[in-house]
């Protein structure tokens, strides 16, 4: 006997259409297939007043069963069958073909069913007495079945019920089609998102390459980004060595896997060594889904097992046309199917790495060339400064030598004639004495003239005048000799000289600057010379060093005195102290913190190996920021036109490069300055010179 609800369907009342409207509304509002099916089967079972309404999902051929109940609503005491599978697929082709063309099964009595035995037995296990089956399609594909069943009694199915269920099934098919379209849209969105992520990763890598030349940092950050993008277990950068062995220089590895960087000996892949990079030299990538099913040699598999890899992508890193290394992505947890876009992503990153490496190598070459050019420029500046100073000193030496020569000729003439004049004067004075003795009463005119010229005083003073003239001429001869010693034009090669003579010659040249001048007081000179051996050196160049240092000391003292009052000058007079010593212990070692002491090119003197000259002043001192640069070529603190910045630079080169010694500046602001000259020698002959 029909129920009231089934009668309502047969009579076309509004209740079935309300159910249909709710189903349509759900389809439009929801894409949750499980909820949609569950709500629909519940409404249908209640509307039709049947024992079971279910959705049976058909599986593809690679599944073991034909299908499974994925949504169900049952009336007690019928047992639920949600999740039940129909395992026999022997009849699937026939049934699927029937349902594919829209066929339905209307079976009032299951015992009279024409269904295949397995299908029939499955329904009997579900206690089915009457069975109505309508196919559900997704586009042109048979997706599943809508089952309406009576389990307690047989039931004749009315055409109106069948038509109503067809209508419901058609809307469910629309939902399936909409879901498929949504799935395709989501897949496309996912692919677009993945493509966007790949593009961002590439863009980020390119930007990093342009911003930074730090290859190690670039490798570290990019391998981490690529590993996260691929969801791989490890991404690493492998670098070849000249013998085509190699090792990992950077990597990003998931937790739980052993890091490779720094933990592996050099990897010697015989194939890569024999072929010098193999396929990777030809810019070919390699993707392996399963290392055990690709035909790898056993030794290669063992190597990959050491790397914990089960699947991998390897692409070359080409710096220009040179195979620099490899970029590898590894799946360690098991085999993995690598998609084409994943291989393409790794290949593009590898290509960008190659650009970065090539760019870094070019930068290093440019940096090296810049350093070489800088060194060449520095050498040229030093050579220029040496040339300028050498020409300057050569001109000065020639001038001094010329002046000394021109002075020496008349002085020698005067000095040579002074002896004769002295003899003549002595003879004339003796003659006068003879006249006085033998002619005691001279003529009045003679007596008057004798008194007028003060002959007694003349006889006493004339020898003194001649003696003082001789002393003056000898002094001039000494000055000329000092000038000749300073110029040393005849001593271009190394010779053994007395350094004290060079200092004295220099002081003679600078004597006029030591005297008081205007409102500036004189500069007191203090000499503390020790007994020194003759020193094997370039004499003229050493004199040049003494001249530069002493001139700078005088300049500093003059500048300070310009700002002092006469009372201050008298209270604290300026002085320069020159001392020398023969070093016989380690005392010659300069302060370890000094920039110019104990350097490889300027070793500290060893015991008994050198001469030390100290030139000190009580001037204003040198600030630290200036002191650190005073030996740089062309550096000067003097006003424009007052200094070239070459003197101390030349002096440093002469002592360090030409004599193997050292030049050290020790100074504190307001405490004066000391220049320490060290010249390594071997003891030759000890000479003394009074201060």
From TrEMBL:
Concerning InterPro entries, the annotation shows: GAF, GAF-like_dom_sf, HATPase_C_sf, HATPase_dom, His_kinase_dom, HisK_dim/P_dom, HisK_dim/P_sf, Phyto_chromo_attachment
Q: Where is the Histidine kinase domain?
A: 402-683
Question: Residue ranges of region Disordered?
Answer: 586-605
Q: Which UniProt keywords apply?
A: Coiled coil, Kinase, Phosphoprotein, Transferase, Two-component regulatory system
Pfam families to which the protein is assigned, alphabetical: GAF, HATPase_c
Q: Which residues form a coiled coil?
A: 363-390
Stretches with biased composition (Polar residues): 588-601
Phytochrome chromophore attachment site domain: residues covered: 32-171, 214-352
Q: Which domain of life is it from?
A: Bacteria
The Swiss-Prot or TrEMBL record annotates one GO molecular function as:
kinase activity
Q: What is the E.C. number?
A: 2.7.13.3
Using the UniProt record, name the top-level EC class of this enzyme in a single word.
transferase
Keyword Phosphoprotein in annotation: yes
- CDD domains on file: HisKA (cd00082)
The reaction(s) annotated as catalysed by this protein in its Swiss-Prot or TrEMBL entry are: ATP + protein L-histidine = ADP + protein N-phospho-L-histidine
The UniProt family comment states:
In the N-terminal section; belongs to the phytochrome family.
**PANTHER family to which the protein is assigned, alphabetical:** HISTIDINE KINASE, SENSOR HISTIDINE KINASE
Record's protein name: histidine kinase
